[in-house]
C-alpha cells in the first residue's frame, strides 16, 4: 500500500530518517497517546490524591459507557495553567477542561471555551445546583462552566485550646465584637502563652467578608466598591487587637502566608482562631495539628446582620471550543457533576459536591468521617446564610491583593499610620484597576 | 592593618581560627535548607513544620518507602524515564555538537559567517519565545506525548552553547596537527576522528555533564510534552506531591526530593574536577 507524499509526510520523513531509527526502538511510545485521537480527553489539576480519584472516575465512565473512551491527563496545580495555555495556543487542548474561577472568564471571553447552553437541560441537568453557584460559572448569562464542588470561607477555631481555657465555642451568629472579646480572652486566660487570632488584615478574602456584611464589596464593575471609612474601621479593629495580644504581632504575621496551612498560626499553635477555606479543613489544617479544629460562620457586623460568606465553586468543568466530540464530553460533564457513582468516588475531595444530587448521595451514606460531617453541615449553613455572590474579580485583583498585604504590614510594623495608609492604598488600588 | 606575616605565630593562628570559624558559619547557613530537607524527610507530617530542630528524632525510612510507591506508576518508572531522556540527550549533544563545531572551526563553506552568527543569535533567544512555535511544530508532526520533542532536537545540534564552547576549544588545537595528518593522506573525516576528537576530551566531558544535569533538571519541556503518568519524569512527578489546593504529603515530598537530587549530586561529585578543567581550558592556548 502506498500513500501519496504530502508535505507533512515529507517533512517528517526528512527530519526523522537519520535520527529516528535508533530512537524509536528506545522510546516506548505511550499506548494511551495513540488512542487519544479517537477518544474524549479530560484534563484536571490538583494534588496526587485528587488526580488519582479523577483518573479513576475517567476509567469508571469508560467502563460504564462502552462507546466513549475517556483519556485522563492530570497535572499539578501550579504547572497546569502553563500547560493549558501552551495546549490552547498549540490547538491541542483537551475536550473537557477543569478550570478555575479566575481563568474561566479569561478563556471564555477569548472564545477558547464553548457555551454549554445548548446542552441544558437535556444532556446537562443544572436543576440540582444552587443558583448562586451556577451564576458564578456564567458569562453574559450563558453557562460556560459546571461547578464541580464548592468551598466557602469559614472561621476555624482550636477546640482543644478553647476547652482547656474553659471558653465557650463561638456561635453562628457571633459579631466582630464577640470575636474581639474571645480573642482577648484567649490571650489573657492562656497566661499570654498564645495569641487570640491570626491577623487577616492584609487578606482580601477576609476583608471581603467584613465588607459584604456592611452591604459593600471589594469590587463592582471593575472598581473598588467600599468606602475609605470601612477600610479605616477594618485596620483600626485589627490594630486594637494587636495592641492587646488578641491577634499575632506583625513579625509572626509576616511569616504566615494567607491560605497556606503549614505556616498558619493555627497549625503552629500560635493562635486559636483563623479563617479556613472549607476544602482545606481536613487535608490541610486538621492533618497538620494534633488539636481538634472546628469551623463556624465568620462574624457579622450585628447580631441580625448579613453574614458575608458565600459558597463558591472550587473549580468548573468546561468544554473546549475546538472539541471534536463535544456531545460525548457534555455527557461526561453531567455524569461527573450529578452522578451517584462520581459523588461516591470523589466524596469531599474538593469540598462538598456542588450539585444537591451529589450531596444527597453522601448524606445517605453512613460512612462519613468527623471532618466530612463538619464540612457538610457548615456548607448547608453557609448556603442558607449566603446572599448573592460578588461579581467576578477584575484581572488586576491579584495586584490589589499584594498592595493590601503590603499596606497592612506597613501599618502593623508601625511604618505608616492608618490615616496615611488607607488613602494611599485606595489611590494605588484605583490606579492598578484602571490599568495605569 | 598589619599583614599576617608580621604577627607573632600564636596571633596568626588565632586569626586563621577566626577565618575558619566564619567560613564554617557561612557553610552552615548555606547548608541549612538542605539539612532541613533531609531531616524533614524522616519526620512525621505534624513535626515537619512545628519543630525548629532540623535533626529528626529517629531515622525512620517510612517516608522514603511510602513516597517511592505513592504514585502510580512508582518512582522506578519515573527514574527510568528521566535517565533515558538524559542519556539520549547526552548522546545527541555529543555527536551533533562536535560535528557542527568541527565544521565551524575547521572547514570552509559558503555562508559560514552568517550561519555562525545565526547560531550565536539562537543562544540569546529566550526559551519562552520559542515555546509556542515549537509546540505547534511538534504537535503537527504528531510528536506530542512522546519523548521525541525532548530528544530529537539534541541530535540536530540545537544546543548552541555547547557548539560555541567546542568551537572555541577546537580553535586552540594547532592547525599544524591537521596539516600533518593531511600530508599523511587523511581526509576531513579522518582528521576529525583521529586528531580533533581525541583532543577535545575535556570539553566533551563538560558537555556530557552539563547536558545530563540540565536535561535531568529540565522541567517545563517535560511537563508540556508528556501527559501520561507512565511517561512522566522525576521532576514532573515530584511536583505532583506538593499542591496548593489540597492534601500534601510533605514528608514523602521531602524524601523524594532528597532522592531526586542524587543523580545530579553523584554526577557532580564524580566529575567536579573535570567540570572546572573543561571550562578553564577552553580558549586558552594549549
Structure description:
The complex is a heterodimer of chains A (436) and B (286). A five-stranded mixed beta sheet of chain A has the order 2-1-3-15-6. A four-stranded mixed beta sheet of chain A has the order 9-12-8-13. By secondary structure, chain A is α+β, with helices and mostly antiparallel strands. The longest helix of chain A is centred in the first third of the chain and has 20 residues, at 7-26. In chain A, a hairpin with a 2-residue loop joins strand 10 (217-220) and strand 11 (223-225). The radius of gyration of chain A is 25 Å and the shape is globular. Chain A has 18 helices and 15 strands. The longest helix of chain B has 32 residues, at 9-40. The two termini of chain B are 41 Å apart. At the A-B interface, helix 1, helix 3, strand 2, helix 4 and helix 12 of A face helix 2, helix 6, helix 7, helix 12 and helix 13 of B.
Mean pLDDT of chain B, as a whole number? Answer: 85
- The helix tally of chain A amounts to 18
Task: Output the structural class of chain B.
Answer: mainly alpha
Task: Please state the CA-atom Rg of chain B, rounded to the nearest Å.
Answer: 25 Å
Computed structural class of chain A = alpha+beta
Write the layout of secondary structure elements.
The complex is a heterodimer of chains A (436) and B (286).
Chain A: H1 7-26, H2 31-35, E1 40-45, H3 48-64, E2 70-75, H4 77-90, E3 96-99, H5 101-109, H6 131-134, E4 138-139, E5 142-143, E6 146-147, E7 150-151, E8 153-158, H7 159-165, H8 176-189, E9 195-197, H9 204-213, E10 217-220, E11 223-225, H10 228-244, H11 250-255, E12 271-277, H12 281-288, E13 293-296, E14 312-313, E15 316-319, H13 326-338, H14 340-346, H15 356-364, H16 370-385, H17 397-412, H18 418-433
Parallel strand pairs in A: 1-2, 1-3, 9-12
Antiparallel strand pairs in A: 3-15, 4-5, 6-15, 7-14, 8-12, 8-13, 10-11
Chain B: H1 9-40, H2 45-50, H3 62-68, H4 75-106, H5 112-124, H6 127-141, H7 148-155, H8 160-171, H9 175-183, H10 188-199, H11 201-217, H12 220-225, H13 234-241, H14 250-281
Helix pairs in contact in B: 3-14, 4-7, 4-8, 4-11, 9-10, 11-14, 13-14
Amino acid at each position: 500500500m502506498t500513500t501519496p507524499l504530502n508535505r507533512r509526510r515529507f517533512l517528517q520523513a526528512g527530519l526523522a530518517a537519520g535520527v529516528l531509527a535508533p530512537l524509536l526502538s528506545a522510546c516506548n511510545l505511550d499506548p494511551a497517546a495513540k488512542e487519544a485521537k479517537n477518544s474524549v480527553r479530560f484534563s484536571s489539576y490538583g494534588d496526587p490524591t485528587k488526580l488519582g480519584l479523577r483518573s479513576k472516575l475517567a476509567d469508571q465512565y469508560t467502563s460504564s459507557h462502552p462507546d466513549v473512551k475517556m483519556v485522563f491527563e492530570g497535572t499539578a496545580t501550579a504547572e497546569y495553567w502553563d500547560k493549558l495555555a501552551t495546549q490552547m495556543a498549540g490547538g491541542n487542548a483537551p475536550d473537557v477542561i477543569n478550570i478555575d474561577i479566575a481563568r474561566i472568564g479569561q478563556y471564555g471571553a477569548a472564545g477558547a471555551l464553548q457555551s454549554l447552553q445548548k446542552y441544558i437541560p437535556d444532556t446537562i441537568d443544572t436543576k440540582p445546583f444552587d443558583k448562586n453557584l451556577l451564576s458564578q460559572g456564567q458569562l453574559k448569562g450563558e453557562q460556560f462552566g459546571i461547578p464541580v464542588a464548592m468551598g466557602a470561607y469559614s472561621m476555624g477555631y482550636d477546640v482543644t485550646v478553647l476547652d482547656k481555657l474553659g471558653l465557650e465555642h463561638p456561635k453562628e451568629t457571633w459579631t466582630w465584637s464577640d470575636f474581639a472579646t474571645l480573642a482577648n480572652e484567649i490571650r489573657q486566660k492562656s497566661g499570654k502563652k498564645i495569641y487570640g487570632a491570626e491577623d487577616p488584615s492584609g487578606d482580601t478574602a477576609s476583608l471581603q467578608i467584613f465588607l459584604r456584611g456592611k452591604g459593600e464589596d471589594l469590587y463592582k464593575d471593575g472598581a473598588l466598591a467600599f468606602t475609605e471609612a470601612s477600610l479605616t474601621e477594618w485596620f483600626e479593629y485589627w490594630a486594637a487587637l494587636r495592641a492587646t495580644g488578641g491577634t499575632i504581632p506583625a513579625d509572626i504575621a509576616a511569616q504566615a502566608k494567607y491560605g497556606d496551612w503549614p505556616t498558619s498560626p493555627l497549625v503552629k499553635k500560635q493562635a486559636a482562631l483563623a479563617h479556613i477555606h472549607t476544602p482545606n479543613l481536613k487535608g490541610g489544617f486538621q492533618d497538620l495539628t494534633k488539636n481538634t479544629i472546628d469551623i463556624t460562620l465568620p462574624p457579622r457586623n450585628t447580631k441580625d446582620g448579613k453574614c458575608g460568606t458565600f459558597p463558591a465553586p472550587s473549580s468548573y468543568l468546561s468544554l473546549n471550543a475546538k472539541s471534536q466530540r463535544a456531545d460525548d464530553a457534555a455527557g461526561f460533564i453531567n455524569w461527573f457533576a450529578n452522578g451517584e457513582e462520581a459523588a461516591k468516588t470523589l466524596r469531599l475531595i474538593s469540598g462538598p459536591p456542588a450539585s444537591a444530587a451529589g450531596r444527597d448521595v453522601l448524606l445517605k451514606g453512613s460512612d462519613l468521617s468527623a471532618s466530612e460531617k463538619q464540612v457538610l453541615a457548615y456548607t448547608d449553613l453557609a448556603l442558607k446564610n449566603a446572599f448573592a455572590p460578588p461579581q467576578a474579580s477584575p484581572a488586576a485583583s491579584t495586584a490589589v491583593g499584594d498592595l493590601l498585604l503590603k499596606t497592612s504590614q506597613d501599618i502593623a510594623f508601625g511604618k505608616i499610620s492608618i490615616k496615611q495608609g488607607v488613602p494611599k492604598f485606595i489611590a494605588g488600588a484605583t490606579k492598578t484597576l484602571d490599568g495605569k | 592593618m598589619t599583614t599576617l606575616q608580621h604577627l607573632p605565630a600564636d596571633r596568626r593562628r588565632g586569626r586563621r581560627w577566626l577565618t575558619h570559624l566564619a567560613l564554617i558559619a557561612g557553610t552552615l547557613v548555606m547548608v541549612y535548607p538542605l539539612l532541613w530537607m533531609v531531616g524533614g524527610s524522616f519526620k512525621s507530617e505534624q513535626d515537619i513544620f512545628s519543630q525548629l530542630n532540623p535533626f529528626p528524632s529517629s531515622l525512620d525510612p517510612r517516608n522514603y518507602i511510602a513516597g517511592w510507591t505513592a504514585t502510580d506508576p512508582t518512582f522506578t518508572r519515573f527514574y527510568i524515564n528521566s535517565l533515558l531522556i538524559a542519556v539520549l540527550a547526552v548522546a545527541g549533544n555529543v555527536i551533533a555538537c562536535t560535528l557542527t563545531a568541527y565544521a565551524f572551526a575547521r572547514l570552509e563553506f559558503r555562508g559560514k559567517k552568517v550561519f555562525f552568527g545565526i547560531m550565536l543569535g539562537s543562544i540569546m533567544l529566550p526559551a519562552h519565545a520559542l515555546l509556542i512555535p515549537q509546540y505547534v511544530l511538534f504537535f503537527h508532526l504528531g510528536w506530542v506525548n512522546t519523548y521525541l520533542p525532548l530528544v530529537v532536537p539534541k541530535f540536530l545540534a540545537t544546543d548552541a552553547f555547547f557548539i560555541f564552547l567546542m568551537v572555541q576549544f577546537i580553535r586552540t588545537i594547532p592547525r599544524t596537527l591537521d596539516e600533518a595528518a593531511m600530508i599523511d593522506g587523511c581526509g576531513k573525516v579522518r582528521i576529525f576522528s583521529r586528531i580533533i576528537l581525541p583532543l577535545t576530551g575535556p570539553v566533551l566531558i563538560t558537555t556530557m555533564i552539563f547536558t545530563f544535569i540540565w536535561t535531568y533538571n529540565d522541567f517545563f519541556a517535560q511537563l508540556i510534552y508528556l501527559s501520561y503518568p507512565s511517561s512522566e519524569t522525576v521532576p514532573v512527578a515530584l511536583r505532583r506531591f506538593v499542591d496548593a489546593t489540597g492534601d500534601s504529603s510533605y514528608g514523602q515530598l521531602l524524601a523524594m526530593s532528597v532522592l531526586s537530587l542524587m543523580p545530579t549530586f553523584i554526577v557532580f561529585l564524580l566529575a567536579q574536577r573535570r567540570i572546572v578543567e573543561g571550562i578553564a581550558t577552553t580558549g586558552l592556548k594549549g
